[in-house]
Amino acid sequence: MTTNLSISQHLARIPLSKLNAAIVQCGGQPTTNKANAIVYLDDCILRGQITLTAVEAGVVGVAAPSVDVSAVLKTVQDLHQTTAALAATVTRQEAEVDRKIADAKAVALASIPKIDAGVVAGEVSRAVSEAFAAFKSVTAPAVVTKVADSILPVRQVKFAGDLFPITAYGAVQGGIGEFVDFSHLEVEFWGDADAPAVLDDYVFDAENLHQALIALSNPLPHNCWFAGERGTGKTEFAKQLAARLGRKLFRINFDESAEKAEFIGGNTIDQGSVKWSPGAITKAIRHPGAIVLLDEIGFARAQAIATLHALCERTPDRAIVISETGERIAVAPHVVFFVADNSNGHGDNGNFAGVRQQSTAFIDRFSFTLNFEYLPAHEEAALIASRSGMTDAAARMLVDLVNVAREKARMGLLVQAPSLRQLFAWADATQAGLPVATGFKNAVINKFPAETAVELLGIYTATINEAAFKQALEG
Asked: Burial letters for 36-71: b for 16+ Cβ neighbours within 10 Å, e otherwise?
């Protein structure tokens, strides 16, 4: 964690459960609104009531209130019974209405009150969620999960401009320019406490964001394929989209050794008995509103991907059948699948070693393909400066180096250019006082084979003037 970030920015990266624990430590009441929690704790830290380190650590020593878990579960059960009773009442009233219509008793029909079962269920769900907000913040995750499975999420309709910093772009089609402003596009905010933390300095590609929000606008969303070279922000795009929409992100990383049991599930031995245990994807599809990122899927074997076809099919009955148990697990509403792939599904063309070509049938299950490019040099430098605390001038020198490496990689003169993550590490080390050459060696050079390292060292020598870099660091 870098030292130049404001207290609020640090707090934004901490899960809501830890923030609520710290609020309790300071004598406040837990909240379901992360922004309110950040404002409250920012003030507490400035007044010396608590330290940022204590908040990050989960405030060891906070006494959790005594919770009768069985009573909590019974309350949930009672509320669901109430919902069922109300639904039964609706059914009886509808039957009464039909009978009176048949008897032509129009006056009696008009006097019978009507109940919207959907509204009733929604109100019960909202009340339950609010009642358990504090409970979630101080209870063991396993218990929270067991209770939460019985509670429907409460969503809010907002405008894209309320949640995202960039909601306009220029589109060019057939040589004709068009200005697009989607700030008033209605989107749903889920408020999931397990959503990723918002990074205020993340730079969205507005055109890709617009398409992704449209893809998510239906209870049966459109899946999206993210294509672009390593370091263009595909994974972070999915994380920050989930963060600002308050949706939980399930990231499943693939490699050539990935087996079906790892992401779908398989049999295990539990206390001497064979028990089927769900994998990451099986857990994800049961979570309404989940964003499931299939990362680096180009490295997965065809047998592994074949099991995903039924899940990624855009049909109302999308589901997977567990061969070991015969259980059919349906995909919950609003669950969407994103793929992050370097090669756009086309496999290794000389620049993506080890990446497999994907079948047309699998690619066709993703309605939209979004292309990701590197940020313009000035924006990439500003991002590195923001994350590391170094000056824009020094950060620009790092970006100039990596852009030369990227160009050589495109020309086939370099196997692979340094990633943005490696630039962040290099910047952090240098800003903390490590010599720029040593930081480059440890963060970049040492991660590559000898032949690539030699080429990278040549690029370093040609692009980095160490004296000028030291001067730029000093501002």
From this structure: ebbebbbebbeeeebebebbbeebeeeeeeeeeeee
pLDDT tens-digit series, residues 249-288: 999 988 766 677 777 888 788 777 888 888 889 999 999 9
List the structure tokens of 290.
Answer: 């989940």
445 DSSP assignment: G
> What does the block give as tokens for 215?
């893809």
What are 174's two structure tokens?
């057939």
Q: How far, CA to CA in Å, does 343 sit from each of 108, 205, 294, 296?
A: 67, 19, 14, 10
Position 140 scores a pLDDT of 60
**Measured distance CA(230)–CA(296) in Å, rounded:** 10
User: Which of 193, 233, 174, 177 lies closest to 209 in space, CA to CA?
Assistant: 233
What are the φ/ψ torsions at residue 284 (nearest 5 degrees)? -65, -45
pLDDT on residue 268: 80
**Interior angle at CA 150, CA 117 and CA 265, nearest 5:** 125
SS3 285: helix
Mean pLDDT of 125-138: 54
Question: Between residues 27 and 247, which one has the greater pLDDT?
Answer: 247
Domain spans in the chain, listed from the N-terminal domain onward? 7-56, 69-148, 156-371, 377-473
**CATH superfamily of this structure's domain 156-371:** P-loop containing nucleotide triphosphate hydrolases (3.40.50.300)
Instruction: Please state whether the predicted TM-score (pTM) of the whole model is above 0.70.
Output: no
For tokens 């919950």, the residue is 332
d(CA 279, CA 299): 19
Element at 226 (helix H, strand E): strand 224-227
Residue 330 forms beta bridges with which residues? 319
pLDDT band at 64 (very low <50, low <70, confident <90, very high): very low
* pLDDT exceeds 50 at position 116: no
Torsional class of 313: left (φ above 0), alpha (ψ -120 to 50), beta (otherwise): beta
Q: How far apart are CA 92 and CA 299, in angstroms?
A: 56
**Through-space distance between the first and last CA atoms of the chain, rounded to whole angstroms:** 22
Position of tokens 């086309």?
A: 346
pLDDT of residue 191: 93
Provide the pLDDT confidence category of residue 310 given band limits of 50, 70 and 90: confident
Task: Enumerate residues 6+ apart whose C-beta is below 8 A from 368.
Answer: 211, 215, 222, 224, 225
Using the Cα atoms of residue 229, residue 233, residue 239 and residue 245 in order, give the sign of their dihedral. negative
Per the prediction, the chain carries an average pLDDT of 82
Convert 156-183 to b/e letters by CB count within 10 Å (16 or more is b): eebebbebbeebebeeeeeeeeeeeebe
